[in-house]
Amino acid sequence: INRNFTEALNDPNSPEYRSIGANVTKMLEELYRKSSLKDSYRICKVTGLRFGSVQVICNCYIDPTAASEAVTAEQVKTEFATGTNGTKLLGNTYQLRSNSLAVEAKAPVSTDNIEIPYWGILLIVLGILIVLFLIFILGLLIALCLKKKYHGSYNTLQNPAGTYIPHQKYF
């Protein structure tokens, strides 16, 4: 873009960096929201400014599942060129060099991995502990019932002196 690079643009926390970053992000958002990629476009974020007149490094996220056909890097580049009058002017504010645009396509982030929140993991662990506790209590109850049922049937030491049966009847 047609700005002179200063040391403040090296610091992402400086007001100059944030101002240029916010302006470029807003202009890119307007550009893609008005383009044929409006259904697939999600967000653009300035990730760096480099020395040159000022080189802006920006990541734009496009949802490949939102459109009926796949979005290519060439399509993104074409929409940018169309929205900036042939890569000349961004938002009627920043002049661009026509050969300065580079678009790199990266594979989309997989949404197959479902992340379980920490409270969900805690509930699962708590549920497993409760089930294990109930199984333990059930086993204990079964053992106690079996002990009562067979109490004395195999007890050979009921009376240490043995059982005495008298042969005579005394009245």
Q: How would you describe the overall organization of this protein?
A:
The structure is a single chain. By secondary structure, this protein is α+β, with helices and mostly antiparallel strands. 36% of the residues lie in helices and 13% in strands. The chain has a two-stranded antiparallel sheet. A hairpin with a 3-residue loop joins strand 3 (89-90) and strand 4.
Q: What is the helix tally?
A: 3
Main structural class: alpha+beta
Distance between the termini: 126 Å
Helix content: 25-40%
Strand order of the largest sheet: 1-2
The proportion of strand residues reads 5-15%
Give the low-pLDDT segments: none
**H/E topology pattern:** HEEHEEH
Averaged pLDDT: 79
Total number of β-strand segments?
4
Any idea what the radius of gyration is?
Answer: 39 Å
The biggest beta sheet reads: 2 strands, antiparallel
